[in-house]
Amino acid sequence: MKLIAxxxxxxxxxxxxxxxxxxxxxxxxxxxLEFARRWQKEGADALHxxxxxxxxxxxxxxxxxxxxxxxxxxxxxxxxGLRSLSKIEEVLRAGARRAIIGxxxxxEDFLKQAVKKFGEKVAVSIDAVGxxxxxxxxxxxxxxxxxxxxxxxxRLGVKWVIYTDISxxxxxxxxxxxxxKKIISCRGPHYxxxxxxxxxxxxxxxxxxLDSIFGVILGKALYEGKIKLPEAKKALEKDVx
Length: 241
Fold this sequence. Notes:
By secondary structure, the protein is of the alpha/beta class. The chain has one domain (about 1-240): Aldolase class I (TIM Barrel). About 35% of the residues lie in helices and about 30% in strands. The protein has helices at about 30-40, 50-55, 60-70, 85-95, 110-120, 145-155, 175-185, 200-210, 220-225, 230-240, and strands at about 1-10, 15, 25-30, 45-50, 75-80, 100, 120-130, 130-135, 140-145, 160-165, 190-195, 215-220. An 8-stranded parallel β-barrel has the order 1-4-5-6-7-10-11-12, surrounded by 7 helices. β1 and β2 (about 15) form a beta hairpin. α1 (about 30-40) runs parallel beside α3 (about 60-70) and α8 runs parallel beside α10 (about 230-240). The chain is globular and about 45 Å long. The two termini are about 15 Å apart.
């Protein structure tokens, strides 16, 4: 199981939101590149970067992201405001390994086009409030069920799926393992779990109960020192041995 470090960027700064709320965030630093270097040095397997300003329709941090992809050797997946094929192409050209589609993933025709054009470079983010998918930078709840969404993205050939329980994101309240179990029963894509991770115990539990998932995204727990990447890597190595 891979450990993926999150870097959320707003106005060029590294921030963490609580439950996706625009007004409820904490600034951790003014250099996303420095955090990218740090997480790579400490042993992250990949980076998960979200351009919050793009997600909210208030600008872009693409230049900052490109600096990271040019210097960091890790795979980088990028999301936030990717609601057109041209925007997807922009982040891939900037060096992202995968482009994460959220809001527009509910448009099956668009998703088909994206998969046809970009193949395995397309990832879909299933961001949920309860069992319902949320869109528009997590600000709007839809009637679409997360399990229905998982079936759709699998059918359309999406190879990467990220599931986030918004109510747990940034809370350190523990991950939603039970819903993830239901989602990964839809075999096919590589699955990544996000939201609420707070301890090595969480990582061990996920590794034991969700042994088929590709990885987990670590956000606030890293920035608050609740989880240290070297210790998490060692814990996973012990579980394997």
